[in-house]
Amino acid sequence: MTTGLPHPSFSALGTIDWDDTTSILHGCAPLFDTLTTTPDLLRTLVDRVRGDGHLASMCEGYDFMHKLVLYDAPDLTVRLRLHLYRDGFFDRPHNHRWSFASHILRGGYTHRIFGRDDQFGEDTDPHTLRPIHERREHPGATYALHHTSVHTVHAEADTLSLLVRGPAAKQRFLILDAATDSFFWVYGAAQESPEQRASKRLTPDQLHQTITRIHRLITTPANSQPSDDQKAETA
């Protein structure tokens, strides 16, 4: 289990009021600034996941994105994650179990916010949802989002973002799927079966490939063309 602070900038995470987006933004900004201006620290955090069974067990893979947990503070119920988006990532309207702050390191995405989840439920027709706020999130962009917000992101290939999530405010969150005209609830790890957890967890080989890919992206300008080896990693 992760203990201690990897850097003094992590200490501000303990001062955050996770029901106040101003507090979230203020408390996460020092960490985001440090990881942006000190790439060696970011590389160290990414690389140590390989040898930390606790962090590795929380790393997850989906069709179009992988999530690495770089830091876990169980006493604060706070985690730092790094997201790697692959080509074609477009999530579905959803809220969250927890409030969070995000910072774009590389790439970018279109971010749409539809409103609060007290006006969003199982009977909501996803085809009728219209964003009340839409913007492009570019490298260097930072924002905080309350857990009651309903949003989507549409990411470019190889987008990297940092995310600091706070304590869970509810046991589950809702996703609406317009493609199938359906909905489903997603629960936290404590409510998932071992089989559900295993289906999401990155295998050691997947984790190694993802870390290798992230290291290359951190050191490669965003407008560079990927090598054949890099293309193969995302196939």
Main sheet properties: 6 strands, antiparallel
Q: What's the mean pLDDT score?
A: 91
Low-confidence stretches: 224-228, 230-235
* Strand percent estimate: 25-35%
**Approximate helicity band:** 25-40%
Number of helices: 6
Quaternary state of this entry equals single chain
Q: What is the overall silhouette?
A: globular
- Report how far the terminal alpha carbons are from each other: 32 Å
SS-based structural class? Answer: alpha+beta
**Computed CA radius of gyration, to the nearest angstrom:** 17 Å
SSE succession: HHHEEEEEEEEEEEHHH
- Number of separate strands: 11
Q: Strand order, biggest sheet?
A: 1-2-3-9-4-7
What does this structure look like?
- This protein is of the alpha+beta class.
- Helix content is 26%, strand content 29%.
- The protein contains 6 helices and 11 strands.
- The strands form 3 sheets. It has a 6-stranded antiparallel beta sheet, with helices on one face. Strands 6-5-8 form a 3-stranded antiparallel beta sheet, with no helix packed on it. The chain has a two-stranded antiparallel sheet with strand order 10-11.
- Strand 1 (60-61) and strand 2 (65-73) form a beta hairpin.
- The protein is globular and about 45 Å long.
- The relative contact order is 0.19.
What is this structure, in a nutshell?
The protein contains 6 helices and 11 strands. It has helices at residues 21-37, 39-48, 53-56, 194-200, 204-219, 228-233; strands spanning 60-61, 65-73, 78-85, 100-106, 109-116, 133-137, 142-145, 149-155, 159-165, 172-177, 182-187.
